[in-house]
Design goal:
single chain, 446 residues, alpha/beta, Rossmann fold, N-(1-d-carboxylethyl)-l-norvaline Dehydrogenase, domain 2, 2 domains, two-stranded antiparallel sheet, globular, binds 6-phosphogluconic acid
Length: 446
């Protein structure tokens, strides 16, 4: 009999199975596609002791009770299909763990369905990608605490060590908080990716700078407090070549998404919170995909490549400023969710669990934990002082981008947001007055 079942032996499922097996955990693996299973044991000798099935009945019977079954399939029809199947085969008190990127709203509904059948549920966000999941992912969990108690020993074996010395998994609450925290992680990830990409773009669009210059800057930053996993992998991609040309000179610029950023934006809208940086990051992916508009517009407006200087101290400060605002907006959204949904997600625990194994791991996360009051960010004078000091760097960079027609998604939004929250009075005064005029909406006088 095995200790644990995994359904969905794609790239992430395989990494998870290899990670568990290498810790001596006997796993049963199921995938409805033969292709995923055929060469598994010969490709990965550490899976020798695992039990591999393409028959769900045999798979279920091979797991010792109460069964723990981790589902790693895309959310949507594939997940729905697996859940309906498992409902037919599991016994009461068996544990179904959804380890995919699932919309927290869907995770909530799935929990209700599974609970009504007397099974236990964990909604679990897993970060790290193919390599991270193999070497020690960051795991964010929500659902039945009684289920968590039964699997935490396994998670403790397969995760990494966080900045505070714990293992990189955390239980965030008795409902869909695990998937919610993963969604926030992904929103932060989208903005971090866009910021790095905007910086590369600003540099490479001036005749003054080459790929070598961009890599020099990224390398320098990686050796200091600006280090992050995403900056490291960007550096690798910047130096990659195909047939003597840089990958980035050949690669199609249309950027896809799997929906997690959109979910976060929708949650923020529902809660009335601004995540303007995420919005800009998502918009830039949308615009990149808008072939028709782009091809028409860029035929009509042709600009020669410009030649401009970049002040690198300003650039570093602008980058720091934008990253702080990104986290600031994410913290306020988490705070608002805690208040509106009666949750108790600890922002410092989320940062801690992201501090190793996750895609957004960085020195900044460590600094946020050490230097700022992340659980009460609005009471932290330090962050406002830092932002104020860094702001002139951002203004410099925005000037360079505006005078040279370079769009810097997320940078403008960071400054706009900061200027608005730090101003005692906003343009929305007149909006209230306009609403009052045409809709007889009440106005409040101070
Ligand atoms: C992770 C990532 C991962 C996510 C991808 C894709 O933490 O390992 O967040 O879960 O699915 O980054 O996101 P997009 O396809 O939307 O860019």
């Amino acid at each position: 009999m095995s200790d644990f079942g995994i359904i969905g032996i794609g790239r992430i499922g395989t990494s998870m199975a290899r990670n568990m097996s290498s810790k001596g955990i006997i796993v049963s693996l199921y995938d409805k596609s033969h292709n995923s299973l055929d060469n598994l044991k010969s490709d990965y000798p550490e899976l020798e002791s695992s039990l591999v099935f393409d028959d769900i009945n045999k798979f279920i019977s091979s797991i010792s009770k109460p069964r723990k079954v981790l589902v790693l399939v895309p959310s949507g029809p594939a997940l729905d299909e697996v859940i309906s199947l498992l409902i037919q085969y599991l016994d009461s008190n068996d544990i179904l763990i959804d380890g995919g990127n699932t919309n927290p709203n869907v995770s909530f509904k799935n929990h209700q369905t599974i609970k009504s059948k007397n099974f236990l549920y964990l909604g679990m966000g897993v970060s790290g990608g193919v390599k991270g999941v193999l070497e020690g992912p960051s795991i964010m969990i929500g659902g039945d605490s009684n289920a968590f108690d039964q699997v935490k020993n396994i998670f403790s074996q397969i995760t990494s060590k966080t900045i505070n010395g714990s293992k990189s998994f955390e239980f965030f609450g008795d409902s869909n908080q695990g998937h919610f925290v993963k969604m926030i992680h992904n929103g932060i990830e989208y903005v971090e990716m866009q910021l790095i990409s905007s910086i590369y773009y600003l540099m490479i669009n001036s005749k003054k700078y080459t790929y070598d210059d961009v890599t020099k800057i990224f390398k320098k930053w990686n050796d200091i407090d600006l280090n992050s996993y995403l900056l490291e992998i960007s550096l690798l991609k910047l130096t990659e070549k195909i047939d003597d040309s840089y990958l980035l000179d050949r690669i199609d610029d249309k950027a896809d998404d799997n929906g997690t950023g959109r979910w976060m934006l929708k949650h923020a809208i529902d809660l009335g919170c601004s995540v303007s940086m995420l919005n800009a990051a998502i918009d830039s992916r949308f615009i990149s995909n808008n072939n028709n508009t782009r091809s028409k517009a860029n035929k009509l407006i042709i600009e020669d490549k410009k030649e401009y200087d970049i002040d690198f101290e300003s650039l570093a400060n602008a980058y720091k400023f934008c990253r702080l605002i990104n986290y600031f907006q994410a913290f306020l959204l988490m705070d608002s969710a805690n208040q509106s949904y009666g949750w108790n997600i600890s922002i410092s625990n989320a940062l801690n669990v992201w501090s190793n194994g996750s895609i957004i791991k960085s020195n900044l996360i460590n600094a946020l934990l050490n230097d700022y009051l992340v659980d009460n960010i609005l009471d932290d004078k330090n962050i406002f002082n830092n932002l104020n000091e860094l702001k002139s760097g951002l203004i410099n960079i925005l000037n360079t981008s505006l005078t040279n027609d370079i769009s810097l998604p997320c940078f403008n939004e960071a400054l706009n947001y900061f200027n608005q929250i730090s101003s005692p009075s906003l343009s929305t005064k007149l909006i209230q007055a306009q609403r009052n005029y045409f809709g007889s909406h009440k106005i409040k006088l101070n």
